[in-house]
Design brief:
single chain; about 240 residues; alpha/beta; five-stranded parallel β-sheet; 7 helices; 15 strands; about 35% helix
């Protein structure tokens, strides 16, 4: 499990590093394979490193790219790291939701609060890794197909058939939308009787449609709009990745 600490104050970098090491030692958390944290002084250094991290502690107020800008760049690169913002200003917390932040820590950092947030972040990483291996098994007339759920953009109803739109191809199969909805699980939302969308690929939405990260638009039933917004916001608060 790779962890990064990004803060322009060396004392904060060292404090977070020490708290992580203490938590791993005290809680026996070496089982998930937590490595020595990488530390960076700026957002530019983190982005230039070209390394994928599972958890990133990110200061908001920094020289150059601030934490929010750095997070937006990470999301554009499809990085799904668990982001924990570190800030001395409570008002910044609201901006954190725009980049699907997992949580935030206020300076000065309290050890008890840090332990609580860090433990939850580790569990979230392990849950995501498990979900990333979730698969959908489908059978067509000519072949049997195993799809990673995370690669499915949306499902479209076509009468007796459905089209499964993935990152690589469109697959047409005989299937029932309700059954697929149950099989795909909570990261997918039935936004219209004819559409089932993977919330990880939502880039923008209005009261009548949803735009995906690849530019495609799908229908959002007006009567489901308010429920959709609640469901999507809950998905983001629980650590779901936004396609920004």
């Amino acid at each position: 499990m790779n962890i990064a600490i990004v803060d322009d104050e060396k004392i904060i970098r060292e404090q977070i590093k020490g708290l992580i090491q203490k938590r791993v030692t005290d809680n026996g958390m070496c089982c998930p394979g937590i490595c020595e944290p990488d530390a960076y002084e700026t957002g530019e250094e983190l982005l230039a490193a070209g390394k994928r991290f599972d958890i990133i502690f990110l200061d908001i107020q920094m020289k150059g790219k601030d934490g929010i800008e750095t997070a937006r760049e990470l999301r554009k690169r499809k990085e799904d790291a668990v982001l924990i913002f570190v800030t001395g200003i409570r008002e910044y917390v609201f901006e954190a939701f725009d980049v699907a932040a997992f949580h935030y820590l206020l300076k000065p950092i309290e050890e008890e609060k840090f332990a609580e947030v860090f433990d939850r972040a580790v569990k979230e990483v392990m849950k995501r890794k498990e979900q990333g291996r979730e698969q959908l098994f489908i059978k067509t007339r000519n072949r049997n197909i195993t799809l990673d759920k995370k690669d499915i953009l949306y499902v479209e109803n076509r009468g007796r058939k459905v089209e499964i739109h993935t990152t690589g191809e469109v697959i047409e199969v005989y299937a029932v939308m309700k059954e697929l909805e149950e099989q795909l699980g909570g990261n997918f939302y039935r936004c219209h009787r004819g559409y089932l969308v993977n919330m990880a690929y939502i880039a923008e939405y209005s009261s009548a449609s949803i735009r995906l990260g690849n530019g495609e638009n799908i229908y959002l039933a007006k009567e489901r709009y308010h429920e959709f917004v609640k469901t999507y916001m809950r998905y983001l608060r629980n650590g779901g990745t936004a396609c920004v």
